[in-house]
Amino acid sequence: MLTSSSAMILIHLRNFKNWIVWSWTYLWAIWFLLVVFLIYYLRGPLKISENIGMATMFLSTLTPKFYVALTGTSSLISGLILIFEWWYYRKYGTSFIEQVSLNHLGPLLGPPDYSAAANGEIIGSAATTNQSQPNSSECKVWRNPLNLFRGAEYVRYFNSTRKEPLTFYDMNLSAQDHQTFFTCDSDSSKPEYAIMQTAWRERNTQERIKGAKAAIEKNPDCATAYILLAEEEAPTIADSEKLLKVALKAAESNLKKSQMSQSHGPITDSLHRRDVNVLIYIKRRLAMCARRLGRLKEAVKMFRDLTKEVQPIMSVLHVHENLLEGLLEMQAYADVQAVLAKYDDGSVPRSAALCYTSALLKVRQVSEKFVTESGLIKRSLSSGEMTAIEAIHRAVEYNPHVPKYLLELKSMVFPPEHLLKRGDSEAVAYAFFHLPHWKRVDGALQLLACTWEGTFASIPRPLEKGNLFFPYPPCTECPDREILPAHHEVSVFPERETPFFIMFTAGLCTFTAIIAFLTHQYPDHMAVIAKTGVGWLSLPILYILDKAETLLPSSLTQMLSRV
């Protein structure tokens, strides 16, 4: 009985609180009119008319220089606000004034519905949890499976264009990856590996190369030192391959030694794990060298062997994407379909490579009809064509940045060493290697050009609700700007319009600057225009006051006497 009575008290308190909130939300207009009504009836004791007259006389005595200074100051202040708003919008993608209004003024003007929140508290929290988990994973930065060699490719690009292909943020992530893959707890007791621990953390390329050479002098079987030289010093892919083959022999020898160790413990286990990571990494880079040098069958065989590995490092390297790209270059589409059947089922994280390769295979079956313009006219579509269009829509929904690069509507840059799922960096990395595969299929790009924009009809609010995937994560722009080089214009989805407050402050700044200039150049004419404008604006107010004088009593005392 006590529990039911306390529950009734809580319900009444909640209803009372909701009533107060409702009154503040909807009755503010009545309170405003009440204040206006009181001011009108107390205009005599407050001497409002006399004060307005004195203010008018004061304003009439001011010189045009005062108005020039006033409008000039207003233009300066609004210009500073405009500059800050534009900087904030370019950096964070939203308006500062709008954000403050929504976060601080919004709850005051429109508080949440407590009853609805109470009824749907459990459901809402569950939905939030389910949607926040995929979004957080999609905003994670991943290693690019097809990353290039720094010395043989990135440095050559810099030497020819004088533009940095990699950002410090991207290279710092690579340094962290190398320390995770190629170091262990027992390295401090070995001078060559202690040198390599320092070398991986060095910012300067020459210092890293110098450290790797010093490690080789101390131990010619230091495989990680050869990896660093192959990645950063070798000027060509062939030179990188030679160094990696030397590293492969050293890695196999080190792995045999760690496997023959009889002792077991955390230190020996970490040493064995490091040796396995080094061996797998070297084999993958050797396969990529074979792919770059045109030995496709050899590269595909090495990638197939690597996909059979079950080591933890395989979840980071994503070798199946290297295998897909090699098979597409060989035009072995049946094998590509077999790889997709194995990996495009959710067993591995989704990627643009999986989604767009699946779309390419479906488009290839019907693309011959779209080679000429006659195939693009409006007509009834077959089931195969509908399947191909649906596959394109699925791929575009996953990463909407890719079509602009495939259709060459946006300039290309070298792919970064890391990428963001569903972001512009992933689109750059995919299109850089897969654009030739799309061009090789006649009519594929024509069909893509005609249908990719139709995806957005099924997802009018991509940040709130998706069709086949979770809503598009809103956190991709900032990481992409950190990963991609500064000379690249980052693609943003969905495209945002310029915020209202930026346009408003720009208009206010321009208008006040023009008024200040005209007042300074033509003070007499501007004074006439100002008086005329004030007269026109005051006409409705004077008319309302005259009608109020005739309809309402002149003072509160007369009204009370009539009552």
Q: Helix amount, in percent?
A: over 70%
β-sheet strand percentage? under 5%
Which sequence of strands runs across the widest sheet?
Answer: 1-2
Mean pLDDT level? 81
Shape: elongated
Radius of gyration: 35 Å
Secondary-structure element string:
HHHHHHHHEHHHHHHHHHHHHHHEHHHHHH
Q: Helices and strands: which structural class?
A: mainly alpha
Q: How many DSSP H or I helices?
A: 28
Oligomer: single chain
Number of strands: 2
Describe the sheet with the most strands: 2 strands, antiparallel
Termini Cα gap: 53 Å
Spans of 5+ residues with little confidence (pLDDT < 50)?
109-136
Describe this structure in words.
With 563 residues, this protein is mainly alpha-helical. Helices cover 71% and strands 1% of the residues. The protein is built from 28 helices and two strands. It has helices spanning 2-26, 28-41, 43-46, 48-60, 64-92, 96-109, 114-119, 121-138, 150-161, 168-182, 191-201, 205-218, 223-232, 237-260, 266-292, 296-307, 314-317, 319-330, 333-343, 352-364, 383-398, 402-406, 424-440, 444-451, 477-483, 500-521, 523-551, 556-562, and strands at 141-143, 418-420. A two-stranded antiparallel sheet has the order 1-2. It is elongated and about 105 Å long. The two termini are 53 Å apart.
